[in-house]
Design goal:
It is a single chain. The protein has helices at 34-55, 65-90, 96-109, 132-135, 140-150, and strands spanning 2-4, 8-10, 20-25, 28-33. It contains five helices and four strands; from the N terminus they run E-E-E-E-H-H-H-H-H. Helix 1 crosses helix 2 (65-90). It is elongated. The protein has a two-stranded antiparallel ribbon with strand order 1-2. By secondary structure, the chain is mainly alpha-helical. It folds into three domains: 1-49, no CATH class; 56-107, no CATH class; 125-155, no CATH class. Keywords: Membrane, Transmembrane, Transmembrane helix. Pfam families: DDE_Tnp_1_7. Residues 2-82 form the PiggyBac transposable element-derived protein domain.
Amino acid sequence: MKWKDKRDVLLLSTKHSVRYQNVRKRNKVISKPKIVIDYNGAKGAVDMSDQMAAYTTPLRKSIKWYKKYAINLLLNTAVVNALVLYQSVIGKKIQMADFRLELLKSFCSQQDVPIARPRRMIHKLQQKEGQARTSRRACVNCYKINAATYGRKLG
């Protein structure tokens, strides 16, 4: 769909049809496409997310642009999403800087959890008749060891 506002606006949607809706803008009524009205209503959330992420950013001018982009995408967006989830679950408003500080404290105060070592698997090859090439369909690593030790015949 092509719509002219101050300049041409090209829009493509699988959800909307080419319907117009009357909207009051200052003292006059303007006819706008429904897709533009929905877009303008939803873009505020993205702007708010970017604004919240920009208040306390870890980015510095000396970082190359692609690193800034990756840090912004990974860290800031994740922290903003975590803050929104935290506020919706807890129901308490908290500032972004305070939330970042609490987040860092919780990461630093976590105890080191020892990683359990997996037990060694016991490989037992079954004795089979015939040549090893035709009878083998067991563990490949065990076969290599047994073939090196006992030769190609397993019987």
